[in-house]
């Protein structure tokens, strides 16, 4: 089961952070069809957020056809977003971990690492590389 977290520095609203985390988990194969998302009550207790925020996120995911709510039972994954082999994800994750280690050894903090990655990603996307 997925465990949600909120990042106050992300610039995204809490409900969009929840939506994004579910999408990422679906894309990486961490959630499969039939898996249950945490109950609204559990998410509210863990993150200390308004229940309407969680409901809004779950409704958004339902509208996208990724989950389905079963009244009195919970919210369940109806499809995944896996678009590459999980083996490739594993290799890429290892490469990324090595890169993160090098960045740390070079003295970069979390914010600097994120800025470097995102600017490089955006530049590569604009150039048609990524």
TrEMBL record:
This is GntR family transcriptional regulator. It comes from Microbispora bryophytorum. Residues 12-80 form the HTH gntR-type domain. It comes from the Bacteria. GO terms for molecular function: DNA binding; DNA-binding transcription factor activity. The keyword Transcription applies. Transmembrane segments: none annotated. Keywords: DNA-binding, Transcription, Transcription regulation. PROSITE patterns: HTH_GNTR. InterPro entries: Tscrpt_reg_HTH_GntR, WH-like_DNA-bd_sf, WH_DNA-bd_sf.
């Amino acid at each position: 089961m997925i465990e949600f977290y909120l990042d106050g520095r992300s610039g995204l609203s809490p409900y969009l952070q929840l939506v994004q985390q579910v999408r990422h988990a679906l894309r990486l194969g961490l959630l499969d069809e039939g898996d249950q998302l945490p109950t609204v009550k559990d998410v509210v207790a863990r993150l200390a957020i308004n229940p309407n925020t969680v409901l809004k996120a779950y409704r958004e995911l339902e509208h996208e056809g990724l989950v389905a709510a079963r009244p009195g039972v919970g919210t369940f994954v109806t499809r995944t977003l896996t678009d590459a082999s999980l083996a490739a994800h594993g290799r890429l994750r290892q490469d990324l971990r090595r890169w993160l280690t090098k960045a740390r050894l070079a003295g970069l903090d979390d914010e600097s690492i994120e800025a470097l990655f995102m600017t490089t990603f955006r530049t590569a996307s604009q150039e048609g590389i990524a």
